[in-house]
Write a structure and sequence with these properties.
Layout lengths: L8 H11 L4 H17 L4 H12 L5 H11 L4 E2 H7 L5 H6 L3 E4 L2 E4 L2 E9 L2 E9 L3 H4 L13 H9 L5 E7 L5 H6 L3 E8 L2 H13 L5 E5 L11 E6 L26 H10 L3 E16 L4 H8 L4 E11 H11 L7 H16 L2 E12 L17 E5 L12 H15 L3 H5 L4 E2 L3 E6 L9 E6 L6 E2 L3 H9 L6 H12 L3 H18 L2 E2 L4
Parallel strand pairs: 6-7, 6-9, 7-8, 9-10, 11-13
Antiparallel strand pairs: 1-3, 2-3, 4-5, 10-12, 11-12, 14-18, 15-16, 16-17
Helix pairs in contact: 2-3, 4-5, 13-14, 15-19, 17-18, 18-19
């Protein structure tokens, strides 16, 4: 028996990839930063030219270059070179696996395979991700049943995941499995669902390729595969794209949910209530429509009725820009008759429903700890936070999830504290907060002061003199009440009145992560 070929094919593939250091850093080093940036824009010519030059010069990294050409650039490679690059898997098993196909003396990729690197609360890690071939390799528009790899939305959602432990997690609409894989790093058990059998097969392959256990895959639409079940955490990058339900307009499994407008996102948000354990949290990406002058963000908040919620709008696009974005996403080129036909269909659909803009953002939902979702709507201390945070966010190397978890925990503690209890606490300034002071030339006192948050959502506030002084004194030594009393004496104002002014502002600063509560 050939003992080298006894492990399962995907395990042998992993050994081959590991042996040649098929990683993001190695590939970036292979073709350089400029070519890597071009690839990110969907252009492979610079990377191909670098690899051609290495081949002519007989430079090192030939095996890595072969895999890069084959799976990342989507170019054919000689069969003998492919065999040298995949010695443990072998070409026959690679064909059987659906990874490649033969074309005479050449081998071409049948799947996209590329490295993926990330950092989270558990540290730095890397995986390999299989998905369907993209436009670059196909040379034409995507098929409607295309299974997407890791894109910008995927990394956004994985970065938003709360890094706190969970017993059971549901990944709703798993696609290639990337969110389930991330969830497995902090969950005891993960259930991943999708309406696409092909997506679930690729997810299974990715789990096996990366040696990830504890994930159960289920076929079905939305919450159907988990009817009657509840979870500590739900994560979802649902097919939220608003696509006309018109004959001749392609519907892609990975982005189009088959409902009119933003109805699919509404269904997901409302469905979370019955599938979350008390205290359980859901996190998803979403679109919402602005219709006939109505505020789209307020519409999204209404869907969360009965649940604690924190909804952050990150961007708003006019319907023209939105349509262009998603028509191009499917591979239809601007300036063609097909593009114009689809553009008309999109604009007709929006016009019929009075939609003028589409918002995009993050949705965090939580079932009240008491377990009665309907009670949360009238609760005075429930989380009901809706905000617009357009533009850049702060530096969050391990993702935004840690900041969200910190803010949620702070909100819960603050909700149980009256002003007297808050005044007794010794707060500290978060390590990423800086202060700026601006002066008119020659003035001794600043004309403006700013507090900037380096991480989180990179919030900036302009505090008054008293609040700025209070924040500056929050070093964990003095209680908030003592600082307020000292400021009242210094400013020669009434202490009770100053406390009434500052304590609500202190609550906001704790909610936003500028000030930190003492450890329990």
């Amino acid at each position: 028996m050939d003992t080298a070929r006894t492990p399962k094919p995907l395990s042998r593939l992993a050994e081959d990839l590991r042996a040649v250091d098929f990683t993001v850093d190695a590939l970036d080093g292979l073709w350089g930063g400029a070519a890597a940036a071009a690839l990110h824009r969907g252009e492979r010519v610079p990377a191909r030219r670098v690899l051609d030059g290495r081949r002519r010069a007989h430079a090192g990294g030939a095996v890595l270059a072969t895999l890069a050409e084959l799976f990342v650039l989507g170019l054919p490679v000689p069969a003998d070179e492919a065999a040298e690059a995949l010695p443990r898997l072998g070409l026959d098993d690679a064909v059987e696996l659906g990874l490649i196909r033969r074309d005479g003396d050449l081998v071409v990729a049948a799947l996209d395979l590329r490295p993926y690197a990330f950092g989270d609360a558990h540290g730095e890690a890397h995986w390999w991700i299989l998905s369907d071939l993209g436009e670059l390799a196909l040379g034409h528009a995507l098929g409607e049943h295309h299974v997407l790899g890791v894109g910008g939305a995927s990394t956004t959602l994985s970065g938003l995941m709360l890094p706190t432990p969970a017993r059971r997690v549901l990944d709703l609409g798993t696609g290639c499995g990337i969110q389930a894989m991330h969830a497995s790093r902090f969950a005891d058990e993960v259930v991943a669902t999708d309406i696409s059998e092909r997506a679930l097969e690729l997810a299974r392959m990715n789990l096996e390729l990366n040696g990830i256990e504890g994930v159960e895959l289920r076929l079905g639409s939305l919450f159907e595969p988990v009817a009657g079940e509840r979870f500590d955490r739900i994560v979802s990058n649902p097919p939220f794209v608003i696509t006309p339900r018109t004959e001749g307009v392609p519907e892609y499994d990975y982005r189009d949910g088959g409902m009119v407008g933003d109805a699919l996102v509404e269904a997901v948000v409302r469905g979370c209530a019955e599938h979350l354990e008390p205290g359980g949290t859901a996190q998803l990406l979403a679109n919402w429509e602005y219709r006939g002058g109505d505020d789209g963000l307020e519409r999204a908040a209404a869907w969360a009725h009965g649940l604690d919620h924190w909804i952050v709008e990150r961007e708003v696009q006019p319907v023209t820009e939105y349509a262009e974005t998603w028509i191009r996403d499917g591979g239809t080129r601007s300036g063609t008759a097909a593009f114009d036909r689809l553009y008309d269909a999109w604009l007709d659909d929006f016009a019929a429903r009075g939609v003028t803009e589409v918002g995009f953002g993050y949705v965090v939902l939580r079932r009240p700890v008491g377990g009665d979702a309907s009670a949360a709507a009238s609760a005075t201390d429930g989380l009901a936070r809706v905000e617009r945070r357009h533009g850049a966010i702060g530096s969050n190397p391990a993702g935004l999830g840690g900041h969200l978890a910190q803010c949620l925990a702070a909100h819960d503690r603050l909700a149980s504290l009256d002003d007297g209890a808050l005044a007794a606490l010794r707060l500290t300034v978060a390590g990423d907060v800086t202060e700026e002071r601006h002066y008119w030339p020659g003035d001794a006192d600043p004309t403006a002061m700013l507090l900037r948050q380096g991480g989180g959502f990179a919030r900036t506030i302009s505090p008054g003199t008293a609040l700025a002084a209070l924040v500056g004194a929050c070093d964990g030594e003095l209680a908030v009440g003592a600082i307020v009393a000292a400021l009242a004496q210094l400013l020669e104002v009434d202490g009770a009145a100053l406390a009434a002014e500052l304590l609500p502002e202190v609550r906001e600063l704790v909610d936003d992560g500028f000030l930190l509560l003492p450890a329990d």
